[in-house]
Amino acid sequence: MTPTEPPLIRTEVPPARTAPRATDAGDGTAALEPAAHLAARGFGLRYGTHAALHDITFDIPEHRVTAIIGPSGCGKSTFLRAFNRMNDMIPNVSTSGELRVGSLDVTAPSTDVVSLRRRVGMVFQRPNPFPQSVFDNVAFGLRLLGLRRGPALEERVEASLRRAALWEEVKDRLDRSALQLSGGQQQRLCIARCLAVDPEVLLMDEPASALDPTSTARVEELVLELKGRYTIVVVTHNMQQAARISDRTAFLMQGRLVEVGDTRRLFTSPREKLTEDYITGRFG
Amino acid sequence: MSPARPEVSLPGLRPGVHWTRRVANRVAIGGCVLATALVVLPLALLVYRLLESGLHGLSLGFFLHMPKPVGEAGGGMANAIVGTLIVVGIGAAIAVPVGVAAGIYLAEYGRERLAGIVRYTADVLAGAPSIVVGVAVFGLLVVPMGRFSALAGGVALAVLMLPTVVRATEEVVRLVPASYRQAALALGAPSWIATLRVVLPAARAGVTTAALLAVARASGETAPLLFTALGNRFWSTHVDQPIATMPVMIFDYARSPYSDWNAQAWTGALTLLVLVTVLSALMRVATRRIR
To answer: Which of A3, A39, A234, B31 has the least CB density, counted as fewest CB within 10 Å?
Structure first.
């Protein structure tokens, strides 16, 4: 997978970035930090009267893998879902503060949720392919964009499946039901389905927690392959996984951001006592 | 040289206990078998009686010929068979789209206040006696139009089909995992697309079953048709004219004083039963294939 491949599809909204692309190669000094792609500024979220997230502020860099870790119920999934407004479906949710994807204000009432979700793809905890054929699953988003049939559609489906490292396994059974695939293959199919509409950001909510170790390893490899092209945010229960695949890690507890930083630094010399207790397994 | 088995003594377990349990078991199973037989018996008697009295009247002419005047031998129910298909077709054309749409509404937006009212209405309607529905449609459609018609008959049957279609659709759409819907929305699908392209196809087998079940039940209804489609001795395919239907024709022939009409009523009843059975069978096949 070379990063020079053209994007699969151009969305109507040109990807707006907050800052020019950063270069990894520094000029003798330290490598520049990549530009922030997603940003939270004093972000809070309530379910009715229950506050699930309090005053969260941090940046998520472009084309990096950022892991969000924390004990169950700490709000990490809620935070992730806030970036493509998946919490909208839950009644009585209200937010405060600011959340940005590039220059787009995510929570503004004027923001078009449909185009936001095309820019910010999501992979769920349990693989959830539609009960349709493998091909139709990947083609779903493209058909929404008006690409209904023909060789152009087939090419893009193939390219997406290749990017998700699934093409070789399914190329002879594109017409079969996606539900016949194994759990790991289903999850990679869901990733391919996301990639087909060429998002900028991939949100992954514990993408491997329902998978066996081999399938987990394949999904992790895939995440590392994809990060050159997409900004990836992974919520995970599994601290080893966060350490293996992420560049930056954020630790959330009881709806608050405890610490965020370079993954290796956070796991080897945490600044906060709570972080240390959590990563050494003293609780959670 | 096996070790001696330890003596087990369970307090309260008297020697005779196994025997009484065996008898209780037999009695329970026997009761269940008897109850099952009682369920099957009416259908068996029905089929037996219909075959006995109706089979000899069955011929190709019965399906192809028009009714003959009293005293003339032969004749069939061709107009009533076609009439039933038309009236039931009109009913299904109204009830299935409306019912499926309402069922989806209840399943997806079921928490709203209006949904509660719709659900309650559907339940009340399901309990309404079919003759009452017939009289209501008579007042609402036949009187203003000035005549009985196939259309009025179709509307009456649609009203009878609706509650079944609505509630069954709601149930099966509710069974579609929320994760399908979420995935579609996360891909940037508007809500209505998610429903139409993901949720509804996933529930297709169940919705088909619901629709066919309602149609099969309604195709045997007689009472509402007496006030609406009325009946017709002649060939008619006009929706604004009175039309012959099998249930009404069977009703008329069965209570007539002519023995050859009585015989035809039996044959008609047999045909109607076969028609409904074929519909049910189609429903099963359709459901299985989609799975």
So the answer is: A3
Crossing angle of helices B204-218/B78-108, nearest 10°? 140
Q: Could you tell me the sign of the dihedral formed by the alpha carbons of B183, B188, B194, B196, in that order?
A: negative
**CA angle (B118 as vertex; B280, A91 as ends), nearest 5:** 115
Kindly list the residues from chain A whose CB atom is less than 8 angstroms away from the CB atom of residue B188.
114-115, 117-118, 141, 144, 197
Token pair 């169940």 in the structure block, residue: B206
Per-residue pLDDT of chain A (284 residues; tens, 9 = 90+): 444 555 555 444 444 444 444 433 334 334 455 677 888 999 999 898 888 999 999 899 989 999 999 888 888 899 999 999 998 888 888 888 899 898 888 888 888 888 899 899 999 988 999 999 999 999 999 998 888 888 889 999 999 999 888 998 998 999 889 999 998 899 999 999 999 988 999 999 998 888 888 889 988 988 998 888 899 999 998 888 999 999 999 999 998 999 998 999 999 988 888 999 988 888 76
Contacts of B158 (CB under 8 A, 6+ apart): B90, B91, B92, B94, B95, B98
B290 CA to chain A: closest CA distance, Å? Answer: 11
B175 touches chain A (CB under 8 A): no
Q: Going from the N-terminus, what domains does chain B have, and what CATH number goes with each?
A: 77-290 (1.10.3720.10)
* Set of chain A residues whose Cβ sits within 8 Å of the Cβ of B184: 130, 140
Domain A36-128+199-279 top-level CATH class: alpha beta
Q: List Cβ neighbours of B71 (8 Å cut-off, separation of 6 or more).
A: none
Shortest CA distance to A251 belongs to which of A9, A44, A76? A76
List chain A residues with CB under 8 Å of B202.
130-131
Query: Quick one: DSSP state of residue A228?
Result: T
State both tokens at B113: 């206040």
Q: What is the pLDDT of residues A64-95, one digit of tens each?
A: 999 999 888 888 899 999 999 998 888 888 88
Torsion of CA B180, B205, B129, B118, to 10 degrees: 10
CA distance A162 to B243: 62
Q: What ipTM is given for this predicted complex?
A: 0.79
User: Is A114 in contact with B177 (Cβ distance < 8 A)?
Assistant: no
For residue A61, give the 3-state DSSP assignment. Answer: strand
Cβ-based neighbour number of residue A8 at 10 Å: 16
Contact B182 A126 (CB under 8 A): no
